[in-house]
Design goal:
The structure is a homodimer of 458-residue chains. Chain A has 22 helices and five strands. Chain A is mainly α and 458 residues long. In chain A, the strands form two sheets. A three-stranded mixed β-sheet of chain A has the order 1-2-3. Chain A has a two-stranded antiparallel ribbon with strand order 4-5. In chain A, strand 4 and strand 5 form a beta hairpin. The longest helix of chain A has 31 residues, at 358-388. Chain A starts with 13 loop residues before the first helix and ends with a helix. At the A-B interface, helix 1, helix 3, helix 11, helix 12 and helix 14 of A face helix 1, helix 3, helix 11, helix 12 and helix 14 of B.
Chain lengths: 458, 458
């Protein structure tokens, strides 16, 4: 496989990539795919992949059609499996099977495993992979097994550095940038690892076991991607050994460990808005399937707020001006609760709250909520008094604001802590619970106090 | 410096860490700091750091007081600079300066640079660092300079692998796990890099320049941390060379590059809720300073919504039941807009929208909004008709829902795309703009249509 030698010098900024993408699109539109490919061929494969996968479907297929199979294979070879899946999911069966037939079988399998089921089966059939191959159909992509490679350097402990280097030369392993070589005994049991830098700089007669350190962070094939990403960050790892009954069965190399982390982050961010699995430019039907159920569920929570307000219809009928301030009390509570929530969820994800007392965190947020509520309550009361010339209304609004900010602090901290204790990922469900509670409590406080003190307002 | 040999075997889960933390806290409370330290001393320094930094202030100081200076130095030595800053920011000047006096000067400097100004100056004075040292006071921590190390392996191109390995042995460099060695010419100009695995596995007489590849991703000392993190992810890098006029002046090693990425992610997540810079357990005053200004600014946006509602007071006075449905229309719009927003912001951050037409994305979200709005509009109309037995109200509500979901889709996609074009980070300001627009438009649509069609409702 011939690799353009100069691509690594052509690192470009996102703005430059946008300009190239525009030019490529223009050339394809004019039917000049060859010139379009000329624009791309000297780029780093990561940039090539970004640009190609962001093209409209027909242009994407047109450009891949003029790339040599070698070039397609080279692009797949150098972009990470997640990007490769993005590009390949957007290619037709014909063009993808032609490309994958050029890639080594393991890598083709890797890409196939990341395609949607039916597409994967079509392509697998076209390139002659056995249909129904359990490795194709069942390997879960959100576990260590989905990111590990099974060709990796492993050495015996009782040799010296010179022999180890000799052995490394002989071993046919994937061209990943392994940062450590693993040391295993005769039965394949993992003993530890040697940093590549130690192997490179030690004298040839240094015994390997003197350089061996235990591996920080072992996972098994079914360890969730989330835990792999956590171990990487917490222990600053560049690669992860995958073991089964102590036997080394695979390695997650640095580039795949990094993709696993990025994929994990993305999923967590999208989960907060309940759009995990959706993409900004995929098929419409997929987006509807992801988003509409959640919007429908959420309707129930907004009706809960509506029901709360409707309890006070007689009060509202007497003092209709109250309606205008409903979004003020609820909105501020929602913002305050979300601030607390975001901090706590992130601190949990980073492991910063290890063994910290829930009571201490709750008290802290309650105090903060009261301080914020006091300031906002006074401010909102002054504005309302000036705007509506109604001191009673101003007083009720200020007190409701104070109360709801205190609620927001407690709920913003309490909900994620509670969900974590229940074993639920706090990132997923917290936001809607928190804003529902602050909405309902805000309306209850504001309209409740107004009803009780209606003589002050009317 | 003696390093406990076994720590790497003692990888623990967050739950196990929580149990140990509890035990440590109990022992310190009973005045038995020595036993508490026994609980910690065999842990991985990352876990030790997490547990120590999450202790209440007095306990934290008590445990650090019984750790040998060697052990403190060892902990600092192995945790990443961001974690080190967390731990050290929570230690008093006395105890911290005793500990830092044991650490090598460069590393002490690194930690000092990450402390708040006044604290840094006190500690610097205590350990005899020159006060006002520009390196201490001015190095920005959110740039490549804040993460690079200046002791790194660099070799000349005209030698062979054997000589390169010999040279690597002689060079005194920091004990970072460098994954590549850099190749520079006589003037220190960066030529390229050699992967440590290639150095380890190649024959001693292989010329180094045959293994040298150009470095993918160069940064300068003032490259923002954000861009370093982006390069790492986009090109799957394990370390980054820092150059000045082409001369190699530093290297960001893999563990610091990873911390930079994690710190960057955290900041982005916290920025969405406008709490960047805050922590879940820092001093109260810091939290107030971070959060209250934003809550105050947000008050203006909620008053915008209040003002919109108050425009329709006469309609509300005639049909007070409308008030109950205000949170339904606004709430659904807010959720829909946030879904779109989250997807687009993340896709921008990952560089997935390179050169993609804004018009295409906007049209897509508009269509999705209309489809979602149609379904939610019908649903909400049916519920309202059954609940309030008012067909006119149901019709108005359904139409307003349809309209506001379409607005939500357009605004959710349009605001981040517009902010990006203006050069503003879309993660920071998008959420509040989107929810303000969906609130105001929702109220305008719902109450506006209700006012126009009031004869249907009353």
């Amino acid at each position: 496989m011939v690799e353009p030698a100069s691509y690594q010098e052509a690192i470009i900024t996102p703005d430059e990539a946008a300009v190239i993408a525009q030019e490529v699109r223009r050339l394809i539109r004019e039917g000049d795919e060859r010139s379009a490919w000329e624009q791309l061929r000297h780029l780093h494969p990561a940039d090539m992949g970004s640009i190609v996968s962001a093209l409209p479907r027909t242009s994407r297929e047109a450009i891949v059609a003029v790339m040599t199979p070698d070039a397609v294979a080279w692009m797949f070879r150098h972009i990470n499996p997640v990007q490769a899946a993005r590009v390949s999911a957007r290619l037709g069966t014909g063009i993808l099977s032609t490309a994958l037939a050029q890639v080594n079988p393991r890598m083709a399998l890797d890409i196939l495993r990341r395609l949607p089921g039916s597409h994967a089966r079509e392509v697998a059939e076209a390139i002659g992979h056995p249909v129904g191959d359990p490795a194709v159909d069942t390997a879960p992509l959100d576990t260590a097994a989905g990111f590990m490679v099974t060709g990796f350097p492993a050495l015996q402990p009782d040799i010296a550095v010179g022999a180890a280097r000799e052995r490394l030369r002989q071993l046919a392993h994937d061209q990943h940038n392994f940062t450590h070589v693993f040391v295993v005994d005769d039965g394949g049991q993992l003993i530890g690892q040697v940093a590549m830098i130690d192997l490179a700089m030690s004298l040839d007669d240094t015994p390997l076991n003197r350089l061996t350190t235990p591996s920080a962070g072992l996972v098994s094939a079914d360890t969730p991607r989330e835990e792999c990403a956590r171990l990487q960050r917490h222990y600053n790892l560049t690669q992860l050994p995958v073991v089964e009954d102590g036997r080394l069965i695979g390695v997650i190399p640095s580039e795949f460990l990094l993709s696993a982390s990025v994929a994990e982050d993305t999923e967590q961010i999208l989960q907060v808005a309940n759009v995990a699995g959706d993409s900004a430019d995929g098929p419409l039907l997929g987006s509807i399937r992801t988003r509409l159920p959640w919007l429908t569920v959420n309707l129930a929570t907004t009706f809960l707020a509506a029901f709360t307000v409707s309890l006070f219809e007689s009060t509202l009928a007497r003092v209709v001006v109250l309606a205008a301030f409903l979004p003020v009390v609820a909105g501020q509570g929602g913002i305050g609760g979300t601030q607390t929530l975001t901090l706590i969820v992130r601190a949990i994800a980073l492991g910063e709250l290890v063994g910290m007392r829930a009571r201490r965190l709750l008290t802290r947020e309650l105090i903060l909520g009261l301080i914020h509520g006091l300031w906002l309550g006074v401010l909102v009361a002054v504005i309302a008094a000036l705007w509506k010339q109604n001191l009673g209304l101003a007083l009720v609004l200020g007190v409701a604001m104070l109360g709801n900010m205190a609620v927001a602090g407690m709920v913003g901290a309490g909900v994620p802590l509670l969900l974590r204790r229940l074993g639920v990922d706090p990132a997923v469900a917290s936001a809607v619970v928190v804003t529902t509670v602050t909405d309902v409590c805000g309306f209850l406080l504001f309209l409740g106090i107004a009803s009780a003190a209606i003589s002050l307002i009317v």
